[in-house]
Amino acid sequence: MNRYARDKRPKVKPVEKVELSERHARWRFAAAVFLLAFGVAALLYAFMNFLSGDPGWREIEASATKENCGGEFAFLYNLGASGLSARTENRALTKLYSEASEKAYQIFNSDQEFDGVTNVRTLNSHPNEELEVDEALYRAFSLLEEYENRCLYLGPLYALYDDLFYCNDDAEAAYCDPRQNGELRAEFAQIAAYANDPAAVDLKLLGENQVCLQVSEEYLKFAKEDGLDRFIDFFWMKNAFIADYLAGTMSANGYTKGSISSYDGFVRALDDSGAEYSFNLYDWREQGPYMAAVMHYSDARSIVFLRDYRMNDLDIQHYYEFADGERRTPYVDIADGLCRSALDNLVSYSQEKSCAEVLLAVIPVYIADEFHESRVDELTAEGIWSVWFRDGELCANDPEIELGLE
Questions:
Q1: Cβ-based neighbour number of residue 373 at 10 Å
Q2: What is the pLDDT of residue 121?
Q3: With contact defined as beta carbons under 8 Å apart, do 138 and 207 qualify?
Q4: What kind and span of H or E run contains 386?
């Protein structure tokens, strides 16, 4: 590989559908370049007028002195809102965020090992050995186990899809595409079968942050013969767990006047003070993605935005689009190793659950051949609400949602 419950459901209003106008389509397409931007009241004004020591909204950036995941996230914070000196708060936040971004980058890394760190790469390199991992990584593994989600074991397929996403032309991509290459499709199915089988590969959680990646002799032999260098990988799910880790670190230290968002659609809004936030809702039309509506909110929440198309430069890591419009994505179905998505995009959110929890709840709904509204409606019993588009209609199952059409 060459690369890196509740017993009773609450009563909810029927799904609301709003027919979207074709007006401003060109403007909406242009707006898509601003990707997953979520607004804050008067945010633009604040950015135009702040000085390093002045209170107000600004982006906290991770230090570039060490490798970290800060480049995939935006951390916006209302400096001074807590009553502390904005300058002092900025320095403390920058230091804390830098350290957390560096740690998250290391422990979730599946391509590189680091001195003194037992990460995903280390586990892949030491199958059938008991190792101690960081508490945050152990919690992530525990959550996957709780939701009975085995997407973690699709590591070999994620690496193969990585090859597809980085192809330079359709001829090369067709060779790397299991839907067009029959021989490759059979290999993908075999790896998916291993990923589905706990007897073949299973990460045992032994308590006190001790784990053991158990891999059968048969799978080890297969991996060696096939040149596979990993058995587990968070891949496209990684930033959901990292967003939660970063948000948890900030909150544990008393910093809650802001929001953390990743380029690929995971948002942790920490602020429960009543400040007004908004999240742009995108849809796909033949000409590409466009901003169709805005979701307004004023509470702390986790937001997960799944989409089967590119919206920014970093998306080259997770998508390939053929000349005929066919798209390949990282949403791999563990049943057969093929990528699929039931909708072009789905936004799900919760005031109670983390990004990873929301994601793991909606994966079975989104990675499917067909979308069933009843399945997202069922998730409202868990405090997870959703917004989606069907044939140009904006649909929502949250009775208290505030939406604005563009």
A1: 14
A2: 98
A3: no
A4: strand 385-390
Q: Is the pLDDT assigned to residue 308 strictly greater than 70?
A: yes
CA atoms of 406 and 404, how far apart (whole Å): 7
Beta bridge partners of 261: 74, 267
- Strands 266-269 and 301-307, sheet pairing: antiparallel
Residues 389 and 268 in one domain: yes
CB of 381 within 8 A of CB of 269?
no
Choose one of 198, 233, 268: the last residue of a domain: 233
Residues 247, 386 share a domain: yes
Note whether 258 and 250 are within 8 A (CB): yes
Query: What tokens does 83 get?
Result: 């009553």
Residue among 4, 6, 15 nearest 373 (CA)? 15
277: tokens are 């936030």
Q: Which residue has the tokens 């559908």?
A: 17
Residues 229, 126 share a domain:
yes
Total domains in the chain come to 2
Domain assignment of residue 385, given as a range: 16-106+237-308+343-405
Residue range 124-176, pLDDT digits in tens: 999 999 999 999 999 999 999 999 999 999 999 999 999 999 999 999 999 99
